[in-house]
Amino acid sequence: MGTPHVSTADRRKTADFWFDPICPWAWMTSRWMLEVERLRPVDVRWHVMSLSVLNEGRDDVPEQYRELLAAGWGPVRVLIAAAEAHGEGVLGRLYTELGLRFHNQGLPNTRETVVAALTAAGLPAELADAADTDAFDEKLRASHREGIGLVGEDVGTPVIAVEGPDGDRVAFFGPVVTPTPRGEAAARLWDGTLLVASTPGFYEIKRTRTAGPSFE
């Protein structure tokens, strides 16, 4: 008896997800991605990208945003240091602990908050020291380049790359959505996103945002 045929749509796939923990929209998308992982044959593999790297050297960045970006180096450096010391498998749970504090709880991007996230993720508090050194910047930039290189410099975080319905790798920015879709709504959004992103020559669907992130 031969081996049963498993279609491309039915096989488990890996979705590579690049995030910056300071971005509330990436946080919304990441929680959606966890719903997708539960409802579709997809396993999420987390990677770090950086809005601070993306906007480095740009003159058109508003001053208030510059302050956010200056502080943004710390958390991504800590994430890279944690992955180097304990393996990339820790990225997902550390991102969750950081995101809960930064976005759901509205805590500031300080060493105290980062230490609390590390502790909750079961990681050494001294990893917070990485925030104040450029020792991990080469690896941070390499991870950022890998993600942004799939979609181009004129987008931000998150970036998702996954095997599409035809077997080819599909990469896209977003989706940008609020609140986080749950249950079958999350699964349908995933199916539709893959469908349009897999269409040759397709680049953009967009409308003006009328609401900010809703962390329900």
Can you walk through the features of this model?
The protein has 216 residues and is of the alpha+beta class. The chain has 7 helices and 4 strands; from the N terminus they run βαβαααααββα. Strands 2-1-3-4 form a 4-stranded mixed sheet. A hairpin with a 5-residue loop joins β3 and β4 (169-173). The longest helix has 24 residues, at 63-86. The radius of gyration is 18 Å and the shape is globular. Residues 1-7 have low confidence and may be disordered.
Structural class: alpha+beta
- Broad shape: globular
Q: Give me the number of helical elements.
A: 7
Q: State the share of residues found in helices, binned by percent.
A: 40-55%
Let me know the largest β-sheet: 4 strands, mixed
Strand content: 5-15%
What is the secondary structure topology, with strand pairs?
Layout: E1 13-19, H1 24-39, E2 42-48, H2 51-54, H3 63-86, H4 91-104, H5 111-120, H6 137-148, E3 159-163, E4 169-173, H7 183-197
Parallel strand pairs: 1-2
Antiparallel strand pairs: 1-3, 3-4
